[in-house]
Each structure stands twice: as structure tokens, then as C-alpha cells.
Specification:
Homodimer. This is Aminotransferase class I/classII large domain-containing protein. With 414 residues, the chain is of the alpha/beta class. Helix content is 48%, strand content 13%. The relative contact order is 0.17. The mean pLDDT is 95. The protein binds pyridoxal-5'-phosphate.
């Protein structure tokens, strides 16, 4: 009895501070709570169709049906995940010809989407790169990257990526920073559809980074969470992966099928490392398994079965490629229409950079006062760094959003 009383009066967690999630989570909650009929969510980080709805792709629906018909059990998969999924993901990530020649040297592990890929990859690196090796991340980057590095015990440092004046890649800043990074550093690179800037590197720039990588023995870690969302073409969006692997650079690759298959609730991704030979690959997989065992034990099978079916069935794969093109083209169209709508309204600013950026995100450059006004007066929700999701724009809301952007920026921009 006494013991019970003591326990009731003693709060073990009274000094624990409130956890603050990233701004995207806050935006989603604020948007959900708003009952204004014309509200717009530009903080959404999964694809939305022209009606503002999440997509359920036909290729995915058909794959789901095929998976159901197999009446599979729900037992644990191997710790590294479903082999058929891992191989299919690697094939699409590295390209068929590289896969055909080198698959036996690529260590792959099914992970919980893009986040899981970065986490497992960073944990592995923390164990096996020399102590003190830093991971360089772009400034800005997906806000979770430095947090994961810290959680995994790695020190992160930013390299310049975005030029706030031109709203394009600051390539000379990037090159200078990578050039001054210590030899052997890990460098995190967004393969395509850079989040949050929408600014991707061109092939000639990737070539220069490749030269720097070789010169400085950099270990490139590609985060490819949006393959297909920049150009609508899987091959083109993976051009950096093709370039680096064909040059014999041992890359690390994180892939997610959350966005490009509309499967974010299934948490399906793949982490892979290019090894020197098959023996090394088996050892690397064994270490990834040891880490994964303590993180999530083994990954969920459902999403992996769906993705594997889409990727391995030629008819569904073809259908998915078409659906991917439609999504990418819609986002491109929204970029152009938004820029044009602002011009037609008479905005004094040059918004053309929005149509020059790629993929699902844009760092608009608008400042805190304008963001506040957009949210409070116009019920348009966006990130506190001025980042918007292009997928949140559609033909029904684009004029309203453009008018609101014009109103809040006509007298001053930042
Ligand atoms: C560049 C980047 N990496 C990783 C993630 C995390 O991806 P996932 O939702 O697949 O875990 C995101 C998601 O927004 C992202 O944009």
C-alpha cells in the first residue's frame, strides 16, 4: 500500500521537455484543424492529384490484387527483407545493365523507406568508418538528415547547396565546400527532386562532383526518395547513380517507394552498398542485419510484396512508368501555371525560378511575415522556411494561391 502511494506521488518524467516535431508535422496538424473551405495544404509531402487527393495507382491496385490472390502467410521475412523486393529495387535503382554485371557485389537490405535507409546506412557507417569521419549534408536538406546522423553517432556538417538570390544551386559554393572537406568524408547527395529546394544538379555538375569524389576519396551516400518525380523517367532521375557506379565508385544508395508508388503508409525502401566482391557483400549484409535486428528486427512484408510485383511484372511495370510520367508532368505543369498566374496578376517579382526547379518541392524565398499572413489570412499552409509542395497545387486552387502570394509579396518580398 505504502509502495503504491509512493509511486503515485512521484513523477519520474516531470523533467522531460515537450518533444517538438519538424515544421511539416505542425503544418499538417494546423491544416487539418482549419475548417475554412478554401484552405490549401502546401506542406504535404506526398503526391496529390489534381483534386487534391492522395493517389492510389492502378499499377499498385492491380499488384495488390495479385498479392491477395497468392494467399501468402504473414510470417517473419528474413532480417534483410524479401530478396525478390531487394533485387527488384536494386535493378531499378542502378539500372538493368549495371545490375546484370554487378548484382552479386551489391549488398542490399529492405528498410523502412527513405528514413530507414538513412538510419541504417548511418548506423553502419558509424560502426565502420574511421572515428571522426564527418557526414556532409546539403544546406538546406530534408530536416531529418542531420538528426539521424546525430542519433547514429555521426557528426554532420553542412555544405552550401542553395543560392537564396538566384534560387538555384550554388554550385561554386558546393564545390568549394566539398573541396575543403577532409579526405574520406561521407557526402549525402539527393539523387533527384531535392527536398526542400526543388533544385537538382545537371549532368555536367554531377561529373564535376564525381571528379571531386575520386580526388578526395569521398564516400557518396545517395538519397533517392523521389526516383521518377523530377523527369517522369526512372533512368534520367538516376543519372547520378549511373554515372558514379559506371565510374567504379562504391556508392551507398537509399531508395523509397513511398512517394513514387503512393505507398507512404507501407514504409517500403531499400538500402544498398556497392562492394568489391561477393564475399565482401555477404559480410556487409551480415552487419546490416545485426544493426537492423536492433532497430526493427525485420521489415514488414506487405509493401515489399506490392512493390516487387509492380517492378517484376512487365505489364504492371509499364503501367507504373506511365503513371509516374503523369504525376511528374502534373507537377511540372503546376510550376509553369503558378509562375504564369503570378505574372498575369501583375506580380512585380520574377517567379520564373519556380518553373525552373524540379520535383515535388520549391523553396519559394518568401519570409516569415508573408508566411504568417498566408496562413492566418488566406488559410494557405506552408513550411516555416518558405518551402512549398508543388503537389499541393491543382487547377482548382492555383489562382487563389497565386493571388494570395501576390497580395503578401507585392510590397516587399522577404
Ligand atoms: C530527401 C528525403 N529523404 C528522406 C525522406 C524520408 O522519406 P520516407 O518518408 O520515405 O521515410 C524524405 C521525405 O520527405 C525526403 O524528402
Amino acid at each position: 500500500m505504502l509502495c503504491f502511494k509512493v509511486m503515485r506521488n512521484f513523477s519520474l518524467w516531470s523533467s522531460v521537455p515537450l518533444g517538438q516535431l519538424d515544421s511539416m508535422s505542425g503544418v499538417v496538424a494546423q491544416y487539418e484543424a482549419d475548417d475554412f473551405p478554401q484552405k490549401v495544404n502546401l506542406g504535404v509531402n506526398t503526391y496529390r492529384d489534381n483534386n487534391g487527393n492522395p493517389v492510389v495507382l492502378e499499377s499498385v491496385t492491380k499488384a495488390l490484387q495479385m498479392v491477395r490472390e497468392k494467399k501468402l502467410d504473414n510470417e517473419y521475412p528474413p532480417i534483410e527483407g524479401l530478396q525478390s523486393f531487394i533485387e527488384a529495387a536494386i535493378k531499378v535503382g542502378y539500372g538493368e545493365s549495371y545490375y546484370a554485371k554487378n548484382n552479386k557485389n551489391i549488398a542490399g537490405c529492405q528498410v523502412l523507406s527513405g528514413t530507414g535507409a538513412v538510419r541504417l546506412g548511418f548506423e553502419f557507417l558509424n560502426k565502420f568508418v574511421p572515428s571522426g569521419t564527418k557526414v556532409f549534408v546539403p544546406n538546406p536538406t530534408k530536416n531529418i538528415h542531420p538528426i539521424i546522423a546525430k542519433m547514429a553517432g555521426l557528426q554532420s556538417q553542412e555544405y552550401r547547396y542553395f543560392d537564396p538570390i538566384t534560387k538555384q544551386v550554388d554550385f561554386s559554393g558546393l564545390s568549394e565546400d566539398l573541396y575543403s572537406a577532409p579526405n574520406g568524408s561521407i557526402v549525402l547527395l539527393h539523387a533527384c527532386s531535392h527536398n526542400p529546394t526543388g533544385c537538382d544538379l545537371e549532368l555536367y555538375q554531377w561529373k564535376q562532383i564525381l571528379d571531386l569524389t575520386k580526388q578526395k576519396q569521398i564516400l557518396p551516400f545517395f538519397d533517392m526518395t523521389y526516383q521518377g518525380f523530377t523527369s517522369g523517367d526512372l533512368e534520367k532521375d538516376a543519372q547520378a547513380i549511373r554515372l558514379f557506379t559506371e565510374a567504379g565508385v562504391p556508392i551507398i544508395l537509399g531508395q523509397s517507394f513511398d512517394k513514387n508508388m503512393g505507398l507512404s503508409g507501407q514504409r517500403t525502401g531499400c538500402l544498398s552498398l556497392v562492394c568489391s566482391n561477393e564475399k565482401e557483400k555477404l559480410i556487409v549484409v551480415s552487419q546490416l542485419n545485426l544493426i537492423a535486428r536492433s532497430l526493427w528486427s525485420c521489415p514488414p512484408v506487405h509493401g515489399a510484396r506490392i512493390v516487387e510485383t509492380v517492378l517484376n511484372n512487365p505489364e504492371l511495370f509499364k503501367l507504373w512508368l506511365c503513371e509516374l510520367r503523369v504525376m511528374a508532368q502534373r507537377m511540372k505543369k503546376m510550376r509553369v501555371s503558378f509562375t504564369k498566374a503570378l505574372k498575369d496578376i501583375g506580380s512585380p517579382h520574377d517567379w520564373s525560378y519556380i518553373s525552373k526547379q524540379f520535383g515535388m518541392y520549391s523553396l519559394t524565398g518568401i519570409g516569415p511575415a508573408q508566411i504568417k499572413e498566408l496562413i492566418e489570412k488566406y488559410h494557405i499552409y506552408l513550411l516555416n522556411n518558405g518551402g512549398i509542395s508543388i503537389a499541393g497545387l491543382n487547377e482548382s486552387n492555383i489562382k487563389y494561391v497565386a493571388q494570395a502570394f501576390h497580395e503578401v509579396t507585392k510590397h516587399n518580398f522577404i
